[in-house]
Amino acid sequence: MDTNAIQRVFFVEDDEEIREIVLYALRSTGFESVGFENAVGFYAELERSPTLPSLVLLDIMLPGNDGLSILQKLRNSPQTKALPVIMLTAKGSEYDKVTGLDMGADDYLVKPFGVMELISRINAVLRRSRSLRIDEKLTYKNISLDIARRTVTADGKVVQLTYKEFELLYHFLLNTGLVLARNRIMEAVWGYDFAGETRTLDMHIKTLRQKLGVAGEHIKTVRNVGYKLGE
């Protein structure tokens, strides 16, 4: 781990065997971890705990409220909207990946998975989330992005972006004027190369441009390479 602070992970998984294996792996690698078999216990601990966990692992297929419902509730709350979340599920279709990621999941791991890969993904997400919690504002001409408030304005008007659209614009603003390859953008924003699927990226670029209006013209397509923001 790359920080001196103890990281605490909440894991919601109804399969007791999987839950105990993952909790053991987390504790063995220096994390504090708490497991829950359903949403009820998870929500109760969130209410009870004086501090938020560092990250949440969510299985999609859960009794009662499923993982996507929990994710949606977390992202709709001001207190937990920036809380890092990794989805764990037996589902492996592109549709399920896109659904979870577009709803605000930071990464997606398909069962069965290796525990060391899981630990690596957790550390990567925690590194990215720390960079997004910096109290800073990024601007380029008529586009402004406020990290702390997670707000975006274009031509002085507030623009409502999805979780991933916000992270995508943040990545562009950090790299103004640089040509960014598609796979590098996927790795930076989605956490990995998404098995070579770039249609999701292209669709996000399209909707981001539309929402930014005239300011969306600053996002340039670089033929056969990727995209860049600015000149």
Structure notes:
This protein is α/β, with parallel strands linked by helices and 231 residues long. The protein has helices at residues 16-28, 39-48, 67-76, 94-102, 115-132, 163-174, 182-190, 199-212, and strands spanning 8-12, 32-36, 55-59, 85-89, 107-110, 137-140, 143-146, 151-154, 157-159, 180-181, 219-222, 226-229. The strands form 3 sheets. The protein has a 5-stranded parallel sheet with strand order 2-1-3-4-5, sandwiched between helices. It has a 4-stranded antiparallel sheet with strand order 6-7-8-9, with helices on one face. A hairpin with a 2-residue loop joins strand 8 (151-154) and strand 9 (157-159). Helix 6 (163-174) packs across helix 8. The N and C termini lie far apart (38 Å).
N-to-C SSE string, H for helix and E for strand: EHEHEHEHEHEEEEHEHHEE
Strand arrangement across the biggest beta sheet: 2-1-3-4-5
Instruction: Report the end-to-end length measured between terminal Cα atoms.
Output: 38 Å
Broad shape: globular
Amount of helix = 40-55%
